[in-house]
Amino acid sequence: MSLSFYLRLYRYGMWANRETMMALENLAQPPSTALNGMAHIVAAEWLWLGRVQNADPGIPVWPSWTPEECRSRLETGIRKWESYLAICTDKTLTEPCSYANSRGERFTSPLADILTHIGVHGGYHRGQIAAALRAAGITPPYTDFIHAARQDMIP
Length: 155
Prior knowledge:
Shape: globular
Distance between the termini: 17 Å
Strand content: 5-15%
């Protein structure tokens, strides 16, 4: 697949993350499982950026952040990812990226697999956040891909 596909997948994920973050910010007291899930999504995206850039972002996998900290990290992370993706090419997608996971295990994956993982990982945890909001009697944001595509949220 081409870089344009992965860029669109990335833009969808960031749109959905912002929608979810906004829903949590609009609550006087978001459910802790929902806020922790959002913090994990954001932290994981920072960790993956560090891995592809051979840098340590110094962020735990499951941080305890306030909504304000989570929003700040989300927006900064988006800007950093966009800068990184702006220099990528179709060829970059196939290049190997060597990294260690949170347990110190070493792996090598092409950038395309990492970008796919980031999109799928975020969707998985946004589903958990939606379930936590529903359990608390709160309607979660509508973050389905097809909705974003139909509304031209992800060009």
